[in-house]
Amino acid sequence: WVVEDIMVRVTSGPHEDQEAVVKHVDGDSITILLKSTKQQVSVSKNQIVAVLAKKKDRVKMLRSDLRGLTGVLIGIDGSDGIVKMDDNLDIKILDMSSLAKLATAD
After folding, report:
1. Which residue among 11, 21, 39, 60 is the one 20 to 30 A from 1 at the CA level?
2. At a CB cut-off of 8 Å and minimum separation 6, what does 54 contact?
């Protein structure tokens, strides 16, 4: 499920509870950039979870035929996210668990 350029939160280990950006994926080994220290560290897939997107956040698709595509979360309806896709401006209704907040340059 992990793709580059998404926001994740570390769930275990020395960097627990820190937010980070996924920089590189190599099988189960993930290189992340910690937001707080700008330090790159390696973690395993089971040590991170995707940061949930909020309305108006840019998002990246994690699953299905849309994997890797980006868009803007324009609404949330229960467990569904309403996404305006970047590539063709289509509106898609997708499960929130298949979306991750896209990292921004800040």
Report:
1. 39
2. 73, 76, 101
Predicted confidence at residue 64, as pLDDT, reads: 77
The letter for the amino acid at 29 is S
- Are 42 and 66 in a shared domain? no
16, 41: one domain: yes
Measured between alpha carbons, how far is 28 from 13 in angstroms, rounded to an integer? 16
- Residues of the chain short of pLDDT 50, as ranges, are none
Cβ atoms of 61 and 69 closer than 8 Å:
yes
Residue with tokens 């499920």: 1
Residue 64's SS3 state is helix
Domain count, the chain: 2
Looking at the chain, how many residues does it have? Answer: 106
pLDDT value, residue 1: 82
**pTM beyond 0.85, yes or no:** yes
Domain containing 23 equals 7-50
